[in-house]
Design goal:
This protein is an all-alpha fold. It has a domain of 141 residues. Helix 3 packs across helix 4 and helix 4 crosses helix 7. The longest helix is centred in the last third of the chain and has 32 residues. The protein binds 2-acetamido-2-deoxy-beta-D-glucopyranose.
């Protein structure tokens, strides 16, 4: 009985996966690019060998490997977040990501949100913040993140693409941006952030277990 249930469950999942795959193939025929599957791209990231030299390049060769590896704990997630926010802002035609500012930990009130005079102002209140992407960071300079973003873009262009595709899916339904759409976009952003950082963490484990050091 359990076995039957299990088989049915698998079939169900496959059918479901098939539907999703077909939909995105159809979407892709409007462009000339080959189909892009988020799960497959994440899996490729997980299976990448990311060596000491990669960690060093990520930090702009400012430190040697053991320190670079340690710094990456903050540097990688903050860089993935930066890529996501860049793409989110550009999909919605909002202002580009501004230079780092002092960190503010005051949560905007409902009244602040309700009285935001423009979509940009509303977005600025809503945008996820981190002390490590601010002038109050105790571990990073903004240029550290700029360097790491450039390296991640070169090594894993899929990260930016995954964000972009998710955002465009939300955006194409309605051409006018409203506040609800911004909230939805931020949810997508958070979901992608979780999936990508998890894949990168797995990659680090896989590298230490399975890759021959270069
Ligand atoms: C940040 O840049 C400084 C040099 O300005 C460097 O000493 C430091 O190692 C870098 N840190 C990271 C995390 O890349």
């Amino acid at each position: 009985m359990l076995a039957i249930f299990f088989i049915c469950f698998c079939l169900g999942t496959n059918v479901h996966a098939g539907v999703i795959a077909t939909t995105s193939t159809i979407t892709d025929t409007t462009t000339t690019s080959p189909p892009f599957y988020e799960d497959a791209e994440l899996k490729k990231i997980t299976e990448t060998c990311f060596f000491d030299s990669d960690f060093e390049e990520l930090t702009g060769y400012t430190v040697r490997r053991s320190i670079a590896y340690w710094l990456a704990v903050t540097l990688i997630p903050e860089s993935v977040a930066t890529i996501g926010l860049m793409e989110l802002r550009s999909t919605l035609n909002l202002e580009p990501l501004p230079p780092w500012k002092p960190y503010s930990d005051t949560e905007p009130s409902d009244w602040d949100f309700a009285s935001a005079p423009s979509i940009q102002a509303y977005y600025d209140l809503k945008e996820p913040r981190s002390i490590d992407r601010s002038l109050d960071s105790t571990s990073l300079y903004e240029h550290n993140v700029t360097t790491a973003v450039a390296y991640l873009d070169k090594r894993f262009p899929a990260i930016r693409k995954i964000y972009r595709r998710r955002f465009e899916k939300v955006h194409t339904y309605k051409k006018l941006i409203n506040r609800k759409e911004i909230d939805q976009m931020i949810e997508e952003y958070q979901e992608v952030f979780k999936r990508v950082t998890k894949a990168l963490e797995k990659m680090e484990q896989v590298t230490s277990l399975e890759c021959e050091e270069d």
